[in-house]
């Protein structure tokens, strides 16, 4: 959470972090990193699945010769 501290002249100062909750910017950075990791994991799973499918096809060819 963020807040603006009131300055001596009555105006509001810069945003400052209050408590341990994530700011919007911190959350955006964390979610971007998580999204990048999930995309890489998904690509690895797709490649693994393609390999297994090819392996099954190859085994089937040997069985039915």
UniProtKB/TrEMBL annotation:
This is Uncharacterized protein. It comes from Lysinibacillus macroides.
């Amino acid at each position: 959470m963020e807040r603006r501290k009131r300055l001596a002249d009555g105006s509001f100062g810069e945003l400052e972090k209050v408590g341990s909750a994530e700011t919007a910017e911190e959350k955006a950075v964390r979610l971007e990193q998580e999204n990048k990791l999930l995309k890489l994991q998904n690509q690895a799973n797709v490649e693994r699945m393609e390999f297994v499918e090819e392996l099954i096809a190859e085994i089937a060819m040997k069985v039915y010769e």
